[in-house]
Write a structure and sequence with these properties.
- The complex is a heterodimer of chains A (about 90) and B (about 675).
- Chain A has about 90 residues and is of the alpha+beta class.
- Chain A has a single domain, classed as Roll (SH3 type barrels).
- Chain A is built from two helices and six strands, in the order ββαβββαβ.
- Chain A has helices at about 30-40, 75-80, and strands at about 10-15, 20-30, 50-55, 60-65, 70-75, 80-85.
- Chain B has a domain at about 20-220: P-loop containing nucleotide triphosphate hydrolases (Rossmann fold, 3-Layer(aba) Sandwich).
- In chain B, the strands form two sheets. Chain B has a six-stranded mixed beta sheet with strand order 2-3-1-4-5-7, sandwiched between helices. In chain B, strands 6-8 form a two-stranded antiparallel ribbon.
- In chain B, helix 16 packs antiparallel against helix 25 (about 605-615), helix 19 packs antiparallel against helix 20 (about 505-530) and helix 26 (about 620-630) crosses helix 27.
- The chains are: A alpha+beta (about 90), B mainly alpha (about 675).
- Chains A and B meet through helix 1, strand 4 and strand 5 of A and helix 3, helix 7, strand 8, helix 8 and helix 12 of B.
- Strand 5 (about 70-75) of chain A pairs antiparallel with strand 9 (about 440) of chain B.
């Protein structure tokens, strides 16, 4: 759809992204309940995200294939356990 | 993008369906589900965009359909260990195993579901649709916030969506009510849809559905930029904290300032009511019960109503504006070390006005254990009812040193808050142990709050409280009044002598003697009631804290409401009847009153310190206990709260007495 699929690149933590930088979620290192919770909010594998606010708490925009997006606020300790693949800038 | 999967394996059934009676309303958090429910039900439901506010299912009957509003969920499935989650509640409701407050509710399985979808965010919402369709109930899809999808240039082909899901699709705008009238007819005509094919994953089905039914538009960059800028301020550790402290200070200033007027009116109205009843009824037990028990007791409870209503009105406005989830996220860092979530801050803060709205506000905490911990510690926060006691004791302790009195006053607030946090930590490490829900909150768009919806929420909360005040609280208050009023003592010889003297002297002097006779009579009567007897009997228990029998009566009688302490002490010590804390002479009389030996003051410095700590920590509010029982789901939690708060208050009082005795050189 309208969102360009990011190119493969090395994995980093969500907290290492710069503001506005897009990335694709690879996975998370969280316990079952916690992982299920953030996945159900849309932060699941291959979801395209960007960072709207860095710091603690950070704000992540999840870009959906329907053209909509939602805004998730995350504590930094949680965000640091989510691995993402940043989009390669052209 | 995957190739679109076949829409459904079989065409929709067209055979007649049994009549639809029980319908469940499902949807993600923040899709406007509760607002739609309110429109269908004709209001009367709490709505907010704070994720997970709808903690219990709400019901209504409309056009012959029993409609239940379920908590907002992202998914129906949840890990097996998470049995208290909103998803578990929804699964129970779908299976006909839902618990509601009303014993008349039938618990049969649902006949149909309505799934409310955010049209501007269809991809995530469709996951819940896929899960629900697999259950195989007739379903109507409501595309809410269609205006926002339009603004983002997201075009949804509703015919294609209906074709693919096998469900009727209705477009609505919950805020304006547009399209809402089409929902129930669609429910009545709903048929069992074919389940999404089982050989593809939910994600594949959702992607294929989006590809088939949605033309993606441009993201609304301008609105996002404004939201980014506001988030930068509200979530900033320093700026955000300043905004938070300023907004909360303003909130409580309004509550304290504005609520005072209606509270005075209520007080005056109940006074007039009591006077009228007293004029109409003959003297006797019935009159005493009605005036002192029922009118006095209900008046003392209803007086909190303005604070409760104002608090909920303002908090609902904050919730609807989208600010509250940001504040919760910001404060989470401060509360998390104590095992409490960010959402606990508003309940704890509002408990400084009154623990009752604070405990009711705990519904905003999604996790059951965290919610219980917050409910259990909320009454440690110094509420307004403690103020008269603090004023009395700090002014006794620091008679001519207002700065030190103010410091001690502030210290009471700090002691209460610190005790609450550490108690919560202990509970969360013992019987409420469990994983903390890591703070991940959906941050809804900022929007102008609706005054109408806030008024509806306020009315519901106020009514809930009044219903409680009219039943359980009334019964308990009457019981305590009886203990404090009976049995009637024989006439006091001292009062009789004074009255005889009054008959022999000139009127101005006679009046003074009659007043003294009345006071002596009241003191004598108090000492001989069940409460007075209990005071004497329980005095040995309080002796280590330095309390004589009169103070013990004060402590026992304020079990129902702590502010009663000052008026009880005024009566017991035969001081001025009214405004004991306000008038200097009344205060001085209490402060200088002596024990039975006639020389030792009731309020020595160690005793006053002990009482101060005792009143900071003790659970002395029957309405709060009743609300705890209701909100926590059982009296055992309320009794636990009473037990540990009383124990802590006693221990704290003992420690304060011992330390103060050492410092002042008194003999502990």
């Amino acid at each position: 759809m309208a969102i360009a699929t990011p190119q493969p690149s090395p994995l980093v933590s969500l907290t290492q992204l710069r503001r506005g930088e897009r990335a694709q979620i690879d996975g998370c290192n969280l316990d079952g309940t916690c992982a299920a919770m953030i996945e159900s909010m849309g932060l699941d594998r291959d979801a395209v995200v960007s960072i709207a606010r860095v710091g603690d708490p950070c704000v992540v925009l999840v870009h959906h294939t329907c053209g909509g997006s939602c805004r998730i606020g995350l504590r930094k300790d949680l965000a640091s356990k989510i691995a993402v693949r940043p989009a390669v800038r052209s | 993008m995957t190739t679109p999967a076949p829409a459904h394996a079989t065409p929709p059934r067209t055979d007649p369906q049994p009549r639809i009676r029980r319908v469940l309303l499902l949807g993600n958090p923040n899709v406007g589900k509760s607002t739609l429910f309110g429109r269908l039900a004709g209001a009367r439901v709490h709505t907010s965009n704070f994720p997970g506010t709808t903690q219990s299912a709400q019901r209504t009957r409309v056009a012959g359909i029993d409609l239940t509003d379920l908590p907002g969920i992202y998914r129906l499935s949840s890990p097996p260990e998470d049995q208290q989650s909103e998803a578990a509640v929804c699964r129970a409701a779908l299976a006909g195993r839902i618990e509601t407050d009303n014993a008349n509710d039938d618990h049969a399985p649902a006949d149909a579901t309505i799934i409310v979808l955010d049209a501007a965010n269809l991809a995530r919402n469709l996951r819940l649709v896929a899960e629900t369709l697999r259950i195989g109930l007739p379903t109507v899809l409501v595309l809410n916030r269609i205006d926002q999808a339009d603004r983002r240039c997201i075009r949804i082909d509703t015919d294609a969506l209906a074709e693919r899901t096998g469900c009727a699709v209705v477009s609505t705008n919950g805020l304006t009510g547009e399209g809402v009238d089409k929902i129930l007819p669609a429910v009545n005509a709903a048929h069992t849809p074919p389940a999404p094919v089982h050989d593809v994953t939910i994600r594949e089905w959702v992607d294929a559905t989006i590809a088939e039914c949605v033309k993606a538009g441009n993201s609304q960059a301008d609105a996002e930029q404004l939201t980014d800028r506001l988030d930068d301020v509200f979530l900033h550790p320093v700026l955000g904290s300043i905004v938070f402290i300023a907004s909360m200070t303003f909130l409580f200033w309004i509550i304290f300032k504005l609520a005072a007027y209606p509270m005075d009116w209520i007080d005056a109205s109940f006074g007039v009511l009591a006077d009228t009843a007293s004029g109409l009824l003959p003297a006797g037990a019935i009159r005493d019960l009605l005036i002192d028990g029922v009118i006095g007791g209900v008046g003392a409870t209803v007086i909190f109503l303005p604070q409760i209503c104002l608090m909920f009105f303002l908090i609902t406005l904050l919730e609807h504006s989208g600010y509250l989830p940001r504040a919760a996220l910001l404060v989470d860092r401060l509360l998390r070390p104590f095992g409490l979530p960010g959402q606990a801050f508003v309940p704890l803060l509002s408990s400084h006005a009154c623990a009752i709205p604070g405990i009711i506000a705990c519904r905003g905490i999604p996790d059951r254990r965290e919610r219980l911990a917050t409910i259990l510690v909320a009454p440690f926060m110094s509420c307004t009812a403690r103020i008269p006691v603090y004023v009395l004791l700090t002014s006794i302790l620091f008679a001519d040193r207002p700065a030190l009195a103010a410091l001690a006053f502030t210290g009471c607030y700090v002691l209460g808050a610190v005790t609450a946090l550490f108690t919560a930590l202990i509970f969360r490490s013992t019987f409420l142990r469990g994983p903390s829900r890591s703070m991940a909150l959906e941050l809804p768009a900022y929007r102008r709050p609706s005054i109408r919806l806030a008024l509806i929420a306020t009315r519901d909360r106020g009514w809930l409280f009044l219903r409680k005040a009219g039943t359980v609280i009334l019964a308990m208050v009457v019981a305590l009044w009886w203990l404090g009023a009976y049995p009637h003592a024989d006439p006091n010889p001292e009062a009789q002598t004074l009255r005889e003297q009054a008959a022999l002297v000139e009127p101005p002097h006679a009046q003074e003697l009659l007043d003294r006779a009345d006071l002596a009579e009241r003191r004598h009567a108090t000492a001989n009631t069940f409460m007075g007897m209990a005071g004497r009997a329980a005095q040995p228990v309080f002796a280590p804290l330095g309390y004589d029998w009169q103070l013990t009566v004060g402590v026992l009688s304020s079990f129902a409401a702590r502010e009663v302490f000052v008026s009880t002490m005024a009566v017991v010590t035969a001081a001025g009847e009214e405004d004991a804390a306000e008038t200097e002479t009344g205060l001085q009389r209490i402060a200088t009153a002596t024990r039975d030996d006639g020389t030792t003051p009731i309020f020595t410095a160690p005793t006053s310190w002990s009482l101060l700590v005792f009143y900071v920590l003790a659970m002395q509010c029957l309405p709060t206990l009743a609300v705890t029982a209701r909100e926590s789901g059982g009296w055992r939690w309320a009794l636990l709260q009473l037990g540990y708060m009383t124990t802590l208050a006693y221990a704290g009082g003992l420690i304060a007495y011992t330390i103060a005795a050492v410092f002042t050189g008194a003999n502990p």
